[in-house]
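Work Package 4 report. The design task specified in the project plan requires that, given a folded chain encoded as structure tokens, an amino acid be chosen for each position. We show below one input record used in the internal validation round.
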């Protein structure tokens, strides 16, 4: 794909106001959110050349980006998020946006966690778009009211609700066995077991002792228990297919990031009418986050004016309101008005606003650690999930061995 795009690039020389944007927003609602940004850019005279790469959680986009950079064909703008920002900035590829940040008072406008994420060695190298909450439980309102169920707030209530749904002949939980989707569910279970501090100990500091903790094996046991609430077998489907199952009333709950809300609304399955959100049981106060950001590749420095314009634009209050409403995420700005948000967004924004002690950086969505460790951890969890002969203690042993190889107890904080 990278080479094919490169050819187009060569055949049609771009003007200084054209920016190619590489991202992984390819579902219907994600495309709508991207188009909204493209339209706002067009108002300012900038042309958005779209390079959307399919694959939830950016698995495909990450690979395409690497091969394009190696081929000296980096896009001008890229959705690079979390720890990956540092990885690319370290290589010296990213445009510093300090002037834009200073002129637009980014240091007082954004939540501290956001400011931290977009900086590298005291320079701003990314522009933030929105905050997704990964510890979101979506439930079908009609099914819940027909069966007189309340949204579960803790594990015991979740088990009870799942049992009642099963007894009524329904599939309690819509889920895919795609590795990143399984690991997303697992990190929810970890957060419920031990809160943000334990989640960081495991996935940011990669402490082998934390892996041997009872809370880890407990979360694994629960993951296996939840399998009996899903399709049998749990097939490997893109997240949009899982959303479809949920919106056709074929499964009563879904636990994942709130990009799903954007997709549901886009398909006419409306927040607080057809479905509502609550936090993953046991994580009500916490916010497991993925923050979307754009970084700019400097290339030959010919597009700086347009790149700076784009960076400024995406973080303005007006674009933040409109973009996040479509995308399902919430504003990165502290001056956002929660009264203008739907109930899911309001709960997410308020939980995030509580500050670092209630926030946990998502492993799967690159907020906790580098690409290589993330992929390796996900593979271990996935193997446990799909193979019933792998025990929790096998899984712990595998992860401990891995953490030793990575050089465990890293002291960095995201
Ligand atoms: C991104 C979202 C995206 C989701 C599904 C996450 O990593 O933060 O913007 O919608 O992946 O692909």
């Amino acid at each position: 794909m990278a080479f094919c795009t490169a050819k187009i690039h060569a055949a049609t020389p771009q003007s200084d106001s054209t920016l190619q944007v590489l991202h992984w927003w390819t579902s219907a609602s994600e495309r709508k959110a991207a188009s909204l940004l493209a339209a706002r850019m067009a108002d300012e005279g900038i042309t958005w050349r779209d390079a959307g790469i399919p694959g939830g959680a950016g698995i495909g986009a990450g690979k395409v980006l690497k091969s394009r950079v190696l081929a000296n064909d980096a896009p001008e703008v890229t959705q690079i998020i979390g720890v990956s920002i540092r990885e690319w900035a370290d290589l010296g590829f990213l445009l510093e946006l300090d002037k834009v940040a200073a002129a637009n008072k980014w240091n007082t406008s954004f939540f501290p966690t956001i400011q931290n994420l977009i900086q590298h060695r005291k320079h701003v190298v990314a522009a933030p778009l929105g905050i997704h909450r990964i510890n979101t439980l979506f439930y079908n309102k009609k099914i819940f009211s027909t069966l007189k169920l309340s949204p579960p707030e803790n594990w015991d209530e979740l088990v009870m609700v799942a049992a009642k749904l099963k007894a009524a002949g329904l599939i309690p939980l819509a889920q895919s066995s795609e590795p990143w989707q399984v690991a997303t569910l697992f990190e929810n279970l970890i957060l419920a077991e031990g809160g943000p501090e334990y989640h960081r100990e495991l996935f940011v500091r990669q402490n082998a002792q934390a892996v041997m903790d009872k809370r880890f094996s407990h979360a694994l046991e629960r993951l296996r228990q939840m399998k009996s609430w899903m399709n049998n077998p749990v097939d490997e489907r893109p997240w949009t297919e899982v959303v479809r199952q949920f919106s056709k009333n074929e499964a009563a709950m879904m636990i994942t990031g709130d990009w799903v809300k954007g997709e549901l609304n886009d398909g006419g399955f409306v927040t607080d009418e057809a479905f509502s959100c609550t936090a993953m049981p046991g994580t009500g106060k916490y916010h497991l986050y993925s923050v979307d950001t754009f970084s700019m590749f400097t290339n030959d420095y010919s597009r700086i004016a347009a790149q700076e314009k784009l960076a400024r634009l995406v973080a303005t209050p007006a674009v933040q309101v409109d973009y996040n409403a479509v995308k399902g995420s919430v504003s990165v700005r502290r001056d956002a008005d929660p009264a203008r948000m739907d109930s899911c967004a309001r709960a997410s924004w308020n939980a995030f606003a509580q500050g670092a002690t209630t926030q946990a950086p998502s492993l799967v969505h690159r907020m906790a650690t580098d690409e290589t460790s993330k992929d390796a951890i996900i593979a271990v969890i996935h193997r446990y999930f799909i193979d019933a002969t792998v025990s929790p203690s096998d899984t712990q042993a595998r992860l401990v061995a891995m953490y030793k190889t990575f050089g465990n107890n890293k002291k960095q904080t995201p």
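The radius of gyration is 21 Å. Validation will be extended to a larger panel in the next phase.
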